[in-house]
Design a protein that fits this description.
The chain is of the alpha+beta class. The chain is built from 3 helices and 7 strands. A 3-stranded antiparallel sheet has the order 4-3-5, with no helix packed on it. Strands 1-2 form a two-stranded antiparallel ribbon. A two-stranded antiparallel sheet has the order 6-7. Bound molecules: zinc ion. InterPro entries: YlxR, YlxR-like_sf, YlxR_dom.
Length: 103
Amino acid sequence: MGKKHIPIRTCIACRTSRPKRELMRIVRTPEGELVFDADQKARGRGAYLCRRRACWERVAQRPKLLGNALKRPLSPDEVAMLRQYVEAATFDEENELTDVEQP
Ligand SMILES: [Zn+2]
């Protein structure tokens, strides 16, 4: 009775599986826009990433990881946006993403 289903997703950078809620979602919307989906509510194909600095930096260096997960390569503008996002993100002492200034 009352069996709880916890959705698990895999980080595209380190391939670790975690409960979906612990991960950040990045979405390619049906309109083709790239969205950093903190609330995990945007429609579209999503990719998941740990909140760890190492994972974000890995994807900033290898945007192909994100392109592959979203089934469409990132445009040069989107790569720049991704790098900007990682630069603007705030991580705490445990290297966990805590806040991001929206551009
Ligand atoms: Zn990761």
